Structure to design on (952 residues):
């Protein structure tokens, strides 16, 4: 087996360890996001939120400066922000519920936990700063003894940060013992929400070296927090004193904007600024992924030896999709003859229409059949084709432009050929704006290439097959993953299979009435509450991505001017387009049935929505029971 | 190191002799045929208390009811009538008075959170004289689609509840340590994927345990095929360990070995495989308070997941609960 080092095999920030800063790509859009006000960061799993937070946390920034041989004093002087990363672990935070205690109890207990754990992390940083400064005058003085004595009702005074750290660790154990044994263990002393953390922060920020600095706590995976826990954090956002809380979450991960005060909410821009990691323009997203990939490729020894920047650009390896190449990969001369014969059979042997079956271009031939299916007159098509072939203004230009990508899906189906997904732009659109998906596609494509003896000593473009197989592989397991997206799991998977099945069938429409349909609109304001919650959950996991409508139609019909895109990472699985082209309108009643209707009824709705004519004249039915 | 102390309950064993001195018998409630197999085996001679346990994962509530040997349990609405696991189970066990008694727990249909917490309490807060655990394999699992389908899939989970910490096992993660994930694999590869996604272990620090020998010949291949993606994704292919699917001691010892080989890392164990393997993970987590348990709370709903009755086993955990 070839030993290789796949530069894309790590796609999670947590796996980068001490080297995280080497992989961080600081896009211009990120500049100024961390201010003296809280930040709410949204984005799908793998869109880069954790990377952003971890990079800005104190210990990673320090490691970066050490790698550049910058003296600690200089690093600390330049660094205006002390960042603390806290991950709301889905395996931990829900422990603060039930167990015979009421919501008020848990609010106090979780607020206390946050106080303890965040204070602990801040104190660890303070201890590290003190140990890193050469001179004693620069060190942070401990002046919290009196307050801590009162807070913890202490007999022996705490007089140093290291003793405070020990005390905090002890308090954490006490608290967890209580949570695990509420009936047996005495409740620990509770400190009010944020009080201890802010007390320590106030103490250090007034000291000489800290006066220009801000302390930020990055609460990652905020969506995992229970509703009452989010209210606790929201309160800290509303009242920064002085610690600034930044939160990162998946789309729609905020369960409430309320604080612990019943009539108080957090709102932008007063309380926080908002940024979504999936809202890059196409150009910005391209810049970002190219830069991220470059940082990874730079680590390859063989490429360093070659020293040619061409090989550090992922676009070199992925190349560009070429429609003609794909067609020629499976169409044989006899297939062209078959297409010509079909046209001849349709239009007869009229002399002025012979041009329609004289072309050897399969795309033109297949388009002519589509146009005939749509009821266009053969003479009219022949006339436009003549102009087109003479490079004169012609409707045929528009017809080709609007249908060529749809035609290839049709031709692939008719020749029982899997559609190919390759090329940088295809990977870019298939990744749906989620960086991790792009890296996973690259990882899998390079893995396939390594199996075909690829080596970085003599870099080459990855073949269409290597890339397409990777796209199918990643798409398949992303479909499988849906079952684990709680709370809707199998219901969500069923919906995706039905929706994908509809789009798949629409791609086989021999009239190509509306090619490449892969997203839908509806009158969402007429949708029932349960379905809206379901759609929100689908957004949370980026199974569906909400976007502005491609073409705003009559708002009285479509209502809300938004569309839901089936994440394009599923496109290869269903063999549908990964481009954002056309949308399908689904009546809210039908959408509700697709979401939660009885299986047979949902099947019927799916089949009705996908009702198109196929080349064999029949209808291939979507069968949920086969799909699941 | 735990020594294997388990036996297959078949005609070569004197079953009466093994269970004759049992004072209290706990068993779960389920409509599966195998759930009452041990009860059937002992009902001819067993005259003491039988306590039927029902548990609601979502609300962490339970009920324990006395069950006549041949009687049927009345199902309670646990949301409104159930007791809180962490608050009340210790009190109930005191009332049942399990100290100095010989206990038998059939874990075949006992839900994970209840099993984990019950065993934790027994070891930490009580001193029973003896603890035997029984488990009955299914003859087969319900499959999706047609049986001749080459890509047949076992139909086990209706939905997943939200990930949560197991009651009694909420442990603060040491954020300064890198994480190791140990997935005890079962038939549902997506559960491994989810664990990998949620736990975020360090690079090349995922171990996988497969049940081998498995309940039925060749089932281990099915486990591999269903877990192929997470095995590749986590690069755990080179770190697969094998342990007999129908007993807990092998898994305990493997976990112990992994822990000893990885000082400085935080272990996160995902018991998503066979029930005896989960028992092994439970025993290990009780003995190691610095170990995290990841559990995804599958809900079987009204599904009957298994068909028929396979082999039954008894495990002697008396030494385990007495070792401090």
């Amino acid at each position: 087996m070839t030993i290789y080092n796949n530069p894309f095999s790590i796609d999670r920030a947590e796996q980068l360890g001490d080297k995280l800063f080497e992989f961080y790509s600081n896009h211009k859009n990120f500049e100024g996001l961390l201010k003296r006000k809280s930040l709410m960061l949204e984005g799908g799993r793998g869109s880069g939120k954790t990377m952003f937070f971890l990079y800005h946390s104190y210990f990673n920034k320090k490691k970066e400066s050490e790698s550049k041989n910058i003296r600690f004093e200089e690093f600390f002087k330049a660094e205006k922000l002390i960042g603390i990363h806290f991950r709301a672990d889905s395996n931990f935070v829900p422990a603060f519920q039930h167990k015979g205690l009421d919501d008020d109890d848990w609010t106090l207990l979780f607020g206390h936990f946050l106080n303890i754990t965040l204070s602990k992390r801040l104190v660890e940083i303070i201890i590290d700063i003190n140990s890193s400064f050469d001179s004693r005058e620069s060190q942070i003085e401990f002046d919290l003894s009196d307050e801590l004595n009162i807070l913890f009702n202490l007999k022996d005074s705490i007089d140093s940060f290291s003793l405070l750290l020990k005390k905090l660790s002890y308090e954490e154990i006490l608290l967890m013992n209580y949570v695990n044994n509420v009936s047996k263990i005495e409740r620990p002393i509770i400190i009010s929400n944020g009080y201890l953390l802010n007390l320590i922060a106030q103490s250090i920020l007034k000291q000489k070296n800290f006066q220009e600095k801000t302390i930020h706590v990055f609460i990652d995976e905020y969506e995992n927090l229970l509703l009452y826990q989010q209210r606790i954090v929201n309160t800290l956002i509303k009242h920064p004193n002085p610690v600034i809380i930044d939160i990162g979450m998946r789309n729609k991960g905020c369960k409430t904007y309320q604080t612990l005060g019943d009539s108080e909410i957090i709102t932008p821009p007063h309380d926080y600024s908002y940024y979504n990691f999936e809202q890059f323009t196409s150009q910005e997203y391209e810049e970002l992924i190219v830069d991220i990939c470059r940082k990874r490729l730079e680590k390859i020894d063989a490429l360093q030896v070659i020293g040619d920047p061409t090989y550090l650009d992922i676009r070199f390896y992925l190349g560009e999709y070429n429609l003609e190449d794909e067609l020629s990969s499976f169409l044989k001369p006899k297939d062209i003859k078959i297409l010509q014969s079909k046209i001849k059979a349709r239009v007869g042997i009229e002399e002025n229409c012979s041009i329609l079956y004289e072309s050897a271009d399969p795309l033109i031939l297949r388009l002519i059949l589509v146009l005939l299916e749509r009821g266009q007159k053969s003479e009219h098509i022949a006339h436009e084709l003549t102009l087109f072939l003479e490079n004169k203004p012609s409707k045929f230009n528009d017809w080709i432009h609007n249908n060529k990508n749809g035609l290839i899906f049709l031709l692939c189906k008719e020749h029982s050929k899997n559609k190919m997904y390759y090329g940088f732009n295809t990977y870019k659109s298939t990744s749906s704006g989620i960086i991790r998906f792009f890296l996973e596609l690259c990882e899998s494509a390079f893995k396939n290439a390594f199996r075909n003896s690829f080596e970085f000593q003599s870099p080459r473009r990855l073949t269409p097959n290597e890339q397409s197989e990777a796209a199918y592989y990643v798409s398949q397991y992303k479909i499988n993953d849906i079952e684990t997206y709680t709370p809707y799991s199998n219901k969500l998977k069923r919906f995706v299979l039905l929706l994908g099945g509809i789009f798949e069938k629409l791609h086989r429409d021999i009239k190509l009435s509306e090619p490449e349909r892969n997203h839908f609109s509806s009158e969402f304001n007429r949708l029932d509450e349960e379905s809206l919650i379901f759609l929100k959950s689908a957004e949370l996991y980026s199974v569906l991505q909400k976007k502005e409508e491609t073409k705003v139609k009559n708002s009285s019909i479509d209502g809300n001017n938004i569309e839901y895109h089936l994440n394009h990472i599923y496109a290869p699985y269903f063999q549908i387009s990964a481009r954002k082209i056309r949308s399908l309108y689904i009546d809210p009643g039908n959408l509700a049935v697709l979401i939660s209707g009885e299986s047979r009824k949902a099947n019927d709705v799916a089949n009705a929505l996908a009702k198109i004519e196929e080349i064999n004249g029949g209808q291939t039915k979507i069968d949920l029971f086969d799909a699941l | 190191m735990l020594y294997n102390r388990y036996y297959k309950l078949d005609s070569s064993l004197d079953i009466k002799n093994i269970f004759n001195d049992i004072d209290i018998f706990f068993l779960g409630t389920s409509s599966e045929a195998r759930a009452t197999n041990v009860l059937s085996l002992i009902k001819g001679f067993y005259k003491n208390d039988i306590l039927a346990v029902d548990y609601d994962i979502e609300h962490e509530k339970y009920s324990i009811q006395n069950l006549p040997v041949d009687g049927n349990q009345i199902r309670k609405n646990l949301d409104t009538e159930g007791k809180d696991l962490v608050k009340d189970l210790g009190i109930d066990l005191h009332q049942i008075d399990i100290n100095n008694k010989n206990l038998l727990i059939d874990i075949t249909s006992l839900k994970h959170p209840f099993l984990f917490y019950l065993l934790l309490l027994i070891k930490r807060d009580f001193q029973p004289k003896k603890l035997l655990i029984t488990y009955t394999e299914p003859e087969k699992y319900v499959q999706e689609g047609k049986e001749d389908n080459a890509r047949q899939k076992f139909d086990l989970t209706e939905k997943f509840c939200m990930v949560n910490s197991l009651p009694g096992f909420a442990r603060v993660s040491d954020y300064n340590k890198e994480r190791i994930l140990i997935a005890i694999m079962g038939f549902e590869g997506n559960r491994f994927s989810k664990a990998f996604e949620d736990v975020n272990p360090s690079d090349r620090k995922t171990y996988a345990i497969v049940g081998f020998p498995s309940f039925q010949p060749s089932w281990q291949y099915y486990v591999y095929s269903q877990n192929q993606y997470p095995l590749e994704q986590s690069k755990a292919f080179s770190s697969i360990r094998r342990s007999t699917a129908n007993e807990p001691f092998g898994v305990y010892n493997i976990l112990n070995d992994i822990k000893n080989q990885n000082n400085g890392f935080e272990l996160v164990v995902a018991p998503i495989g066979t029930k005896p393997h989960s028992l092994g993970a439970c025993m290990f987590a009780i003995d190691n308070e610095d170990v995290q348990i990841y559990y995804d709370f599958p809900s079987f709903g009204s599904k009957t997941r298994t068909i028929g009755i396979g082999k039954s086993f008894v495990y002697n955990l008396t030494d385990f609960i007495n070792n401090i």
Notes: The first strand of chain A starts at residue 38 and ends at 42. The CA atoms of residues 355 and 382 of chain A lie 6 Å apart.
